[in-house]
Specification:
73% helix, 0% strand, transmembrane, membrane, mainly alpha, nucleotide-binding, transmembrane helix, 4 helices, cell membrane
């Protein structure tokens, strides 16, 4: 005997996933603003120095360039994270852009939203898509933080090595 589907938790799960997406977007935007300013400051400090980045001891220069490369890749990860995705996927109902296809046809939208059979299935598809998007954003943020931390450590080590040498 088949058990009836119990989807009472589905709206709450959608709200939770959307809240996680919002939280991920805020984290990525904050980190992007903070680390962009710090990275620009580091690069400016190297260019303002009397001797500049190219005048560092050879090993320290390579280490500094690797650090700047890591910081750049980390910032690119954050940019990818805050870039709106899903606009190109009009067929997926988890995004606001899905409903743009009903422009000039409000009756079709009402019929689509009032369909009792498709609503639960569409919400489950939304939950899956939004969960995948939130997971992807958090992975990008984690990788960006790792790269930025590694880059800052390399630049600091290069500065110390050059000072000691």
């Amino acid at each position: 005997m088949a058990h009836p589907r119990d989807l009472r938790n589905l709206p709450g799960a959608l709200v939770d996933v959307r809240a996680e997406l919002t939280r991920a977007d805020h984290k990525a935007a904050t980190l992007l603003a903070l680390f962009s300013a710090v990275s620009v400051g580091i690069v400016a400090a190297f260019t303002v120095r009397r001797s500049g980045l190219f005048a560092l001891w050879n090993g320290a220069e390579w280490l500094a360039w690797l650090g700047i490369g890591c910081m750049t890749v980390g910032l690119v990860h954050l940019l990818v994270c805050v870039r709106p995705s899903g606009v190109a996927r009009l067929g997926v109902g988890g995004y606001f852009a899905h409903y743009a296809q009903y422009r000039g046809r409000p009756d079709d939208l009402v019929a689509h939203l009032s369909d009792p059979d498709g609503t639960d299935l569409e919400r489950c598809a939304q939950l899956i898509e939004l969960s995948l998007l939130a997971t992807r954003k958090y992975r990008l943020i984690a990788r960006a933080v790792d790269l930025l931390g590694c880059g800052f450590a390399m630049v600091a080590a290069a500065t110390l090595l050059d000072a000691v040498r």
